[in-house]
Amino acid sequence: MSWESVIGLEVHVQLNTHSKIFSGSSTTFGAAANSQASLLDLGMPGVLPVLNAQAVRAALRFGLGIHAQINRRSVFARKNYFYPDLPKGYQISQYEDPVVGPGYLDIQVDNETRRIRITRAHLEEDAGKSLHEDFGGMTGIDLNRAGTPLLEIVSEPDLRSAREAVAYLKGIHALIRYLDISDGRMAEGSMRCDCNVSIRRHGTETLGTRCEIKNVNSFKFVEKAIQYEIERQIDLVESGQSVVQQTRLYDAERNETRPMRSKEEANDYRYFPDPDLLPVLISEADIEAERLHLPELPEARLQRYQHQFSLSAYEAQVLVSNKDLAVYFEEVIATSTEMAPAAAHWIMGDLLAGLHRDSLDITQCPVRPEQLRGLLQRIADATLSSKLAKQVFSALWSGEGSSADAIIQAKNLKQENDESLIQKLVDDVLQEFPEQVSAYRAGKEKLFGFFVGEIMKRSRGKAAPAAVNAWLQRRLQPSADA
Ligand code: ADP
Ligand code: MG
User: Fold this and answer.
1) What is the whole-number distance in angstroms between the Cα of residue 11 and the centre of ligand 2?
2) Hey, how many other C-beta atoms are within 10 angstroms of the C-beta on 140?
3) Nearest ligand to the C-alpha of residue 233?
4) Which of the residues 198, 298, 324, 442 has the least number of beta carbons within 10 Å of its own beta carbon?
């Protein structure tokens, strides 16, 4: 179709500081309701906020991670609105002067690099939570989350599809995990996303009217919500109606977006500088000190994995996108980097499949990096064929032995590499099936697999496949009988 979709994301990231952005209360997730709310978080009058330097540091690190301009002077502002979970009557945020100015994030989509511009990233406090269940028709208020530091990251409308939006979000997620500024746990609300979506005819420059889908909290839902919204807008316009600027909610159960409020009802927040807080000043020395302490970031690691380890762009991307997975990979190859391609192959194959099947994340993987390394060594030295290796891997997974060697020994899984033994096996099988041999020589080539199967059966799967293939090929040549 001739429509182009245009998407800009506003991502809220909860920073992993121990205490809140303006008070000393703990930020630990899952505590008893209101057990982590101080007088300040309760909005008591006359209590003054004190800025948490770690939150500023985290924002600064993020800014460096996206090659952004860091503003030397930024200002906290009050965003005024009433809500029961916001007892002060305003949220402290940044408006005109955020800590982080323009920057960008490169993303990979279909083996192509796209540069997504980031408008700004600013610090703000989270609100409390309204609890609508378990209170017999009333609403409970939990202020534990009130004052948790957030970094809001606003992109330019540079994304062109739901898939690109997800790739961008995953890129942000990887970056905050590498920078160690957030735990990034979306299921716990540590990263939430507002999706702005519009459409326009291909080739048009001006932006269409957008809708904003609030608070989407998983990669999957971001993709589905945006896809739904794009289709909804195209249907509207193609049937002669027009898109109304609106805030909408995504309903995951019905997979649809629904209106929440329209532009006319939009809030006027009456931002003004918060008189309780001084401007935040960041010096050149602060920036350089932080730059020195940056770890290797996903972009650099992506390049390194391709060049140093000869991994494909796709393999590197999968491994790098999850910091814990990258750490696991590097532990596997810690003593021998020439194992990198095999390690990548096994991690992206059996290992990720196993994690997916058992709903585990890589930090809970039952096969430890050194165990996988031991397995790879036995493949490399031809003790194991890939088939036998799969058996050893699943035995490691279910804890049937402490190492590949222990399992190989206990289950007697060593590959048979003895050439003369293998040759005898092959010859025995060919003698046993003379008709099939003639048929093969007469052109029925798919019988090759039948012979291999019979040979493998007799060796209990242990004959070295390469040796079997080579000898079998030789013996099946027309002249081989003589
Ligand atoms: P607001 O002040 O309402 O939050 P902004 O101009 O700050 O609006 O934009 C918020 C987000 O919406 C940004 O990520 C921006 O890229 C995106 N955006 C703005 N206009 C459009 C549009 N027409 N289509 C898609 N996204 C848009
Ligand atoms: Mg906004």
Assistant:
1) 10
2) 15
3) 1
4) 442
